[in-house]
């Protein structure tokens, strides 16, 4: 450890370089962290405490309970429904995405077939198409087959995930030696077996990565469900947040009344809306980094 | 022969999804863009109509200004931060830093916009003092027209940069330790290693980040949409091009105009990203 550090500093940059690096890191740690910390603290405060109290002083458990109660009694428990919807859309899309994109990325990276390059280029091109540019046409398309308002109108478009295919393609084309597959073929594996017995076991990191990105993207998607789902019953939590925002007098003075939402309650809603993604990330972080570093090199 | 058939099997489901939710909708948008409401051929009239709309110019300018700030910040800062974090030798510190940078990524979409609504409202904001220091004492002042592009750039950077830092960090780990070690023995400084070895190796990923971010950035929708809602339309609901397309579709029931805007957005994104693709060598295999 010490020798490595000494080696590192033997260059021109020396301690001043390290000081600048440290300063940059500190600034950005604050930039990224402060909003999150403040948001978590805000959920434990009363509406008045949020405005008059010190920003980084913790609130009281009692206020958190009040905010919790206010949030989950909003429109007779709409928030619970929205969270359930989000889970259904995200998990449904995740499963279909994996089944579709892992084999496809593998095939494009390591096998030869007539439309391989076409599919690769198409994947990149479609990946570049702003999602929202396709949302309205998809809306009309699904409208003609009567799927609007159904969970499938959100799940199926979310399952089309070229980014996942591209990540898989990059992974297989840079991290799996072709010789390994050739050896398996010589040993008598069929093409299917080469994939299921050789490539797939080595692909755990990329499966986790694609799953992770797919889940996060689906959970956080706003525009697609915003357009596809006319009824509040079908909203995912992301779209539901707009209903809460519309009922917050601090941002929408006309909404003061029985169903109004206080700022700390809105903060709590924000935290709860991202909690699953946050947990998935914390849980999967090791895996995620492993996926990125899988290429045989040491960390 | 059987090998090829297996390949087709591997790509079958993905191809079906591509056709259903990529190609067909795009073709349909093209069809809508060159027809009128009755389905008759309209030539380019939809395009001239939407571009001539008094709301189009300002919306395009807003998005371009936002993209400029955001992309420059993203490319420069993400690369620098990834290299600096990678140089941190203490394992726990390095992984904690990545976690801290990444964490806001969980708050994409409406959630991060809501959080920033709090931060930008001086009455409740923890940085209210900072805002007042710049003479901004009310929410309406903070979200003045000139401030919006940088505000959206900050929100997008705060949310998205960490993910790219993790990806760049992973790419840096894939650089062979022997290469870096050899350069160091030859007397290369950390700066020279970053410039001569790490940066060229990252090129593919940097251009990839550029493309993805450009595509995402032209979509600017949820940020101005929620800000518009929260400010009682101080921020107009046709601030960005996508909002304008949405207005066309759902307020004016003009799907042809909406499709025309969508296609224009698409064209610009494709043209600009072609530069990234060619320069970044994205299609290079090994």
UniProtKB/TrEMBL annotation, chain A:
<feature type="transmembrane region" description="Helical">
    <location>
        <begin position="263"/>
        <end position="284"/>
    </location>
</feature>
<feature type="transmembrane region" description="Helical">
    <location>
        <begin position="194"/>
        <end position="215"/>
    </location>
</feature>
<dbReference type="InterPro" id="IPR000515">
    <property type="entry name" value="MetI-like"/>
</dbReference>
<feature type="transmembrane region" description="Helical">
    <location>
        <begin position="87"/>
        <end position="107"/>
    </location>
</feature>
<feature type="transmembrane region" description="Helical">
    <location>
        <begin position="152"/>
        <end position="173"/>
    </location>
</feature>
<keyword id="KW-0813">Transport</keyword>
<dbReference type="InterPro" id="IPR035906">
    <property type="entry name" value="MetI-like_sf"/>
</dbReference>
<dbReference type="GO" id="GO:0005886">
    <property type="term" value="C:plasma membrane"/>
</dbReference>
<keyword id="KW-1003">Cell membrane</keyword>
<keyword id="KW-0812">Transmembrane</keyword>
<feature type="transmembrane region" description="Helical">
    <location>
        <begin position="119"/>
        <end position="140"/>
    </location>
</feature>
<keyword id="KW-0472">Membrane</keyword>
<comment type="similarity">
    <text>Belongs to the binding-protein-dependent transport system permease family.</text>
</comment>
<feature type="transmembrane region" description="Helical">
    <location>
        <begin position="20"/>
        <end position="41"/>
    </location>
</feature>
<feature type="domain" description="ABC transmembrane type-1">
    <location>
        <begin position="83"/>
        <end position="284"/>
    </location>
</feature>
<dbReference type="Pfam" id="PF00528">
    <property type="entry name" value="BPD_transp_1"/>
</dbReference>
<keyword id="KW-1133">Transmembrane helix</keyword>
<protein>
    <submittedName>
        <fullName>Sugar ABC transporter permease</fullName>
    </submittedName>
</protein>
<dbReference type="GO" id="GO:0055085">
    <property type="term" value="P:transmembrane transport"/>
</dbReference>
């Amino acid at each position: 450890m010490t020798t490595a550090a000494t080696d590192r500093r033997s260059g021109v940059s020396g301690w001043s370089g390290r000081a600048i690096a440290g300063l940059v890191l500190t600034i950005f740690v604050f930039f990224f962290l402060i909003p999150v910390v403040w948001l978590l603290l805000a959920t434990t405060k009363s509406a008045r405490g949020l405005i008059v109290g010190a920003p980084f002083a913790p609130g009281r458990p009692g206020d958190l309970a009040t905010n919790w109660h206010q949030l989950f009694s909003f429109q007779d428990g709409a928030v619970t429904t929205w969270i359930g919807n989000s889970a259904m859309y995200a998990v449904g899309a995740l499963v279909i995405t994996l089944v579709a994109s892992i084999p496809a990325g593998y095939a494009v990276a390591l096998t030869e077939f007539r439309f391989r390059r076409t599919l690769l280029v198409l994947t990149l091109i479609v990946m570049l198409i702003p999602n929202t540019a396709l949302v309205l046409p998809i809306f009309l398309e699904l409208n003609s087959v009567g799927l609007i308002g159904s969970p499938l109108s959100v799940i199926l478009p979310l399952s089309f995930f070229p980014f996942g295919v591209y990540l898989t393609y990059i992974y297989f084309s840079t991290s799996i030696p072709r010789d390994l597959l050739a050896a398996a073929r010589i040993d008598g594996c069929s093409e299917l077996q080469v994939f299921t017995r050789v490539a797939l076991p080595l692909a755990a990191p990329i499966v986790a990565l694609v799953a992770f990105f797919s889940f996060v993207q689906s959970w956080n998607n706003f525009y697609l469900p915003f357009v596809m789902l006319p009824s509040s019953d079908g909203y995912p939590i992301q779209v539901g947040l707009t209903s809460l925002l519309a009922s917050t007098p601090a941002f929408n003075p006309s909404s003061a009344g029985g169903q109004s939402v206080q700022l700390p309650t809105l903060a709590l809603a924000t935290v709860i809306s991202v909690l699953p993604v946050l947990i998935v990330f914390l849980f999967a972080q090791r895996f995620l980094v492993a996926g990125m570093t899988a290429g045989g090199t040491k960390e | 022969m059987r090998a090829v058939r297996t390949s087709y099997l591997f790509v079958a489901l993905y191809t079906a999804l591509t056709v259903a939710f990529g190609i067909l909708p795009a073709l349909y948008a093209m069809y809508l863009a060159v027809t009128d409401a009755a389905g008759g051929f309209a030539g380019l009239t939809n395009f001239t109509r939407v571009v001539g709309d008094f709301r189009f110019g300002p919306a395009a300018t807003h998005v371009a200004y936002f993209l400029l700030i955001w992309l420059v910040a993203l490319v420069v800062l993400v690369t620098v931060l990834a290299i600096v974090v990678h140089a941190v030798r203490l394992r726990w510190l390095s992984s904690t830093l990545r976690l801290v940078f990444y964490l806001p990524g969980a708050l994409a979409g409406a959630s991060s916009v809501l959080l920033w609504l709090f931060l930008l409202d001086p009455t409740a904001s923890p940085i209210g003092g900072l805002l007042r220091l710049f003479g901004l004492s009310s929410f309406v002042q903070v979200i003045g027209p000139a401030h919006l592009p940088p505000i959206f750039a900050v929100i997008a950077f705060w949310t998205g940069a960490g993910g790219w830092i993790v990806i760049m960090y992973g790419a840096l780990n894939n650089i062979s330790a022997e290469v870096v070690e050899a350069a160091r023995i030859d007397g290369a400084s950390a700066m020279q290693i970053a410039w001569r070895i790490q940066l060229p190796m990252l090129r593919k990923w940097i251009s990839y980040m550029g493309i993805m971010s450009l595509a995402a950035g032209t979509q600017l929708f949820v940020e101005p949409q929620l800000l518009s809602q929260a400010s009682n339309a101080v921020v107009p609901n046709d601030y960005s091009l996508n909002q304008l397309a949405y207005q066309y579709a759902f307020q004016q029931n003009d799907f042809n105009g909406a499709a025309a805007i969508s296609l224009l957005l698409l064209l610009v994104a494709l043209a600009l990203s072609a530069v990234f693709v060619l320069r970044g060598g994205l299609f290079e295999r090994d």
